[in-house]
Amino acid sequence: MALMGIQLVVSLLAACIMQRMAPHYSFARWLLCNGSLYRFKHPSEGELCALAGKQMPKPTRKDRRQNGESKPLTVPKDIDLHLEKAPINALDALVLRFFLEYQWLVDFAVYTAGVFMFTECYYSSVDASTEVNIGAIWCVLTVLFSLKTLKTLMSHYFSSEEGGERSVCLAFGFLSLLVAMLVLVVREDYLEFGLESAFSSLFDNLEVFARQQGYAEWSIPWNITKSVSRAGFSNLPTPPLRMATSNVLHVLSNTSALLHVYNVSCRILLHMSFLSPVIVMILWVKPIARDFLANAPLGKTTITIVSSETFDSVRLWIIVVLCLLRLAMTRYHMQAYLNLAQKWVEQMKKEAGRIAAIDIQRKVTRIFCYLTVITLQYLVPVFLILFSTLALKSLGDFSWKADADQTPGVTPALIIPIAAPVLPGGFDEDEEGMDDMEEDVQATVAHLTEAFMALRSVLTPLFFRGFFAFLTWWVAACQVISSLFGIYFHQYLMQN
């Protein structure tokens, strides 16, 4: 297994370019700060007083409270207030919450896509079956970093004391746990994740590997380990409420405005983007997807529209295209979120009474400050589905070609190779230092090769097929659940 190959060189080059180019050019910064998105500025107290028809009050001693604070300025809610628009620039983005986390994750995902495309071209032109797929490792890292970002956002909402976010996080956590446990008991005839064969392959290979290491009497309790693994799968993190809110903004909150702004094709793409998680879920339902195409009933006979291998390839392509569609719609969703500031002002005008000027300023500013948080909650599930699918393709031994032969990923012989001893070369004393360095490098490469071979003998492509298939489907299911809750929230709870 060649470790110090061209893939590693390209990987190190991509990491170096990402580190050097981040301060100067960032795709994440360009996504928000290229001038296409605009924010709403909060009105000053002088502007609010002018709209209310009174002069700006001057602070006096009588206006001081007993605690030393000035009396807050209040204005009528029905004032003719129109927020000023301003394009978002780089200086504005620096004050946003979690902007550095957003910038790093999005840039890493872009470079991961570049490394993956290079490795795919490399594997299609060169027989590199004995090499480590660096592109798949980058995809797995992106999935892990995305899960970590979701965990960070969940921790932020859970620690918040406003808006009932903690209760929403707990409710979604228990709901997702219940739904996941119900899904995991469904037979493979209906949801074709391949978890049963994945578990069998993993535990059988672990037992063989343990015996090769000298643990002859060691065995795995199949039923207990299987239950623990299912429980671990069911506890995958789910996005909080604000992702559900941002997902339905175009379809519900700003539909009337968007219908007059965008053309028919753009509206169709927006609705397709909203329904894309449903399509991803259906692709893994065997009676609807695979059986309908591979064994379509026609009277008393069945016809094969596409082969099973072709369906696997087509499913990968469909998921990737749907993810790219959602990525292309990112700016529309983010602008719809920013428009909530003006929408809140319009709603305030319909109410009676007075409101503190500081509350108007705080509400308008808070919507903009949470822009990167909402962007992360929109992009992270897309990254999870996209890069889980790419990892499924590479680690599960699938192919992009429709008629390519795909073999189940089972390692036939689980024999861990022993690295050959490195013999010291008989050179002059002046070259002894260089020889020692070469021996250390060769020994390190031999140990890494042995470790990767051992890992490859346990984690077979059959296991990766089950794991990443379930992860892809489960993230799409979480998006559907969140979107349905968001529809109910906007249609009924916000109107009552």
UniProtKB/TrEMBL annotation:
A Pfam family per the record: Tmemb_161AB
Transmembrane segments: 102-123, 130-147, 167-186, 268-285, 316-334, 367-392, 462-489
Keyword field: Glycoprotein, Membrane, Signal, Transmembrane, Transmembrane helix
Primary location class: membrane
GO cellular component, one term: membrane
InterPro entries associated with the record: Transmembrane_161A/B
Domain of life: Eukaryota
Signal sequence bounds: 1-28
Compartment(s) where it occurs, according to its Swiss-Prot or TrEMBL record: Membrane
Membrane topology reported for the UniProt record: Multi-pass membrane protein
Similarity section: Belongs to the TMEM161 family.
Protein name, UniProt field: Transmembrane protein 161A
Protein's organism: Notothenia coriiceps
Source taxonomy: Eukaryota, Metazoa, Chordata, Craniata, Vertebrata
Gene behind the chain: tmem161a
